[in-house]
Amino acid sequence: MSKFKTKFIDFFKLLFPSTGIELLVFLFFLVIYGYLGSYIAIHHKIIFDARIPWDAYFSFDNKSIVMTGGSFERHPLSYYFFNWIRELALLFSDGKMDGNFRFALAWFSNLAVSLSVLQVFKYLKNIIGLPLILSLLLILFFGSFSTTILLSFTPENFTYTLFLLTFFNHYSAIKLKKEEKIPTLALALSGITIGGLTVTNIIKVFIPVAFEKGLFKSWKKFENAVFRGIFTCICFILLYLNRIDFKYQNIFSKTNEQYEKFSNVKSTPTWDMILSYFFGGNMLFSNFILRDKNNMKGYEYKGIVMDVYSSWVPYYFIAVLLALIFWSYLKNFKNKLVQVLMISFLFDIGIHCIMRFGLHTSYIYGGHFAFVYPLLLGWLFYSYKESPKMLSFLAVIFCILFSYLLTNNYLRMNEFFWFLNQYY
User: In the structure, how many helices (H) and strands (E) does the chain have?
Assistant: First the structure.
């Protein structure tokens, strides 16, 4: 019983703030995002409008996700999760889908994203061991990303995927650092929750397992890892099939239909979509375009989406940041924790940039990988901890990037509020 109690306490220490500085970080983002989300929820209808199922802003499917959890072929188990979210929000709003309902949805998102930022901070401070000032600067940088800002008030799969992935990466990093294996139940629960919200992300759960100590030198350890993987897959598949009444043919037909729909956009050059949407759009707001939308039932409304960048400055921002990221990877190539992060990132690059799935709207997928940027930057700073000159050089570059990010995203959010005031 005492062992279970210890594990339970350790889980909550991992999930929530466990020190004074962690509490301050968590409360800071909870208040900032909370104010933003509360204002939008109270004064505007864009977070949830029963007449608008999708694409009111930046291709998010708020109403559709809240009511159904999204399409089963991409989000197989999110139906159950969003049933709980919706019922809790309705409980808060006395069964009405009004401003109180939107307020509750916004605060659920705020809590998830604030906890995500906390997980990144814990990783920087406890796993990498960065000085406090660097850890704080990196999470402020991450917290100012377009992805974290938007997800902090948006009820979407990506909001909770961001939290689950940051939490799992922190947890698995602790296990790898201690040279321990990820327990069977923990791996299965991670696979079910992460893969249940977005099916492709289940692959990321198995990446840390491949870096467990002595895995390929001991048949016993290898067999145990295979067992854990098979057990996780069986649990996930059975729950997935149960969700669709075991009509597995629907998975293939719907998946092919979704792939055709989201991978054959030719209006913008591929290279520009990769830079502006996949790499840049998750950090740096680009130009906005207003479009006329229809809910297929006669209701017309305005939608706002991101365009490619119109200035050369954002492209330089992206190029410099990516150079730093891959510099970090090469500098820390033998570090298994860095390999876990980069392989996970390359998996997303493969899906969206090479297979082109959802490339034209890939700025909304930031919850799948945006946290990799501050973590790899953290490892880059760590690798030069004994070189003050290089550390100063990197700090100057980072501060320039951070300043531009803050300025750009502040101005773009003003444009977003103009859109809200005009139409919502």
Answer: 17, 2
